[in-house]
Amino acid sequence: MLALLFAAALWAGIQNALAGGGSFVTLPALMLSGLDARTANITSTLALFPGQVTTGWVGRRDVSGVAGVGFKALALISLAGGAVGAALLLLTPSSFFERMVPWLVLFATVLFAYGSFFRKQKSSIPSLGPRAASVVQFLIAVYGGYFGGGIGFLMLAALTAAGLAVRSAGAIKNVLAGVMNAAAVAIFVFTPGIPWPHVAVVCVGAMLGGYAGALLLRRVDERLIRAFVVFLGICLTIGLFITQPH
Fold first, then answer.
1. 120 phi and psi, to 5 degrees?
2. What are the distances in angstroms from CA 105 to CA 37, 41, 74, 141, 145?
């Protein structure tokens, strides 16, 4: 079972770096290992965090502000939103957010596909202004701290809607994902009953996958990344609707 967790974490790290959605790989794997959904969610967040830091560090040269909002401001917004989301997870049941996940991923996939393949690129004016970009990032960060599944798709959709190229959006997404999860990790690490052996195995796999994925992000053709994100979003949306609790 630990070998399965490592393989899932390795793929999740690569997937997080390229597009996001890595927790949809680790969360089912952790639940198959015997953890309940809430504990598996917390464990996944803790274990994937070092991989996100690794990925963000490798791609740090491509990081910038967006829609008139500086990167430091985006980082602070992400940190605050992640803390709020983590606190909500510990105080409320996750069933409501679990039911929202398929719709959020579907919306993000459609928005990303539109911005990538159908929107006319003649205008350089971003679709999102500074205030809208800040609000959207805060809401995404709250969601990320609470559940996190599909967060990469949501940030890619928002960043590309603000006018960024997908490669730059991917690099910024990777760093901000680590920032918002830093707040959640700081809260979750004190939660009793964490299966630390599971955390360690997933952590190592995610770090290796994150490093490899960050290198691939620089080398893979941008059109292939766009197509991969849309394909992955469609697959995840279908799978989430099929497995959604009724």
1. -70, 135
2. 19, 17, 22, 15, 16
pLDDT tens-digit readout, 28-40: 788 888 887 778 8
The tokens 């996100």 sit on which residue? 52
Residues, the chain, total?
246
Number of domains in the chain: 1
What whole-number distance in Å separates Cα of residue 179 and Cα of residue 184? Answer: 9
DSSP 194-234: --HHHHHHHHHHHHHHHHHHHHHHHHS-HHHHHHHHHHHHH
The dihedral sign for the CA sequence 58, 62, 68, 72? positive
At 173-216, the pLDDT tens digits run 888 888 888 888 888 888 888 889 899 999 999 888 888 887 88
Q: Are 81 and 139 in contact (CB under 8 A)?
A: yes
Instruction: For 88-120, give one letter per residue: b (16+ CB within 10 A) or e.
Output: bbeeeeeeebbeebbebbbbbbebbbebbeeee
The residue range of the domain holding 196 is 2-243
Cβ atoms of 85 and 193 closer than 8 Å: no
Instruction: State the maximum Cα–Cα separation within the chain, in Å, rounded to a whole number.
Output: 54
Phi, psi of 190 (to 5 degrees): -95, 5
At residue 19, the 3 state secondary structure works out as: coil
Tokens at 153, concatenated? 């798709």
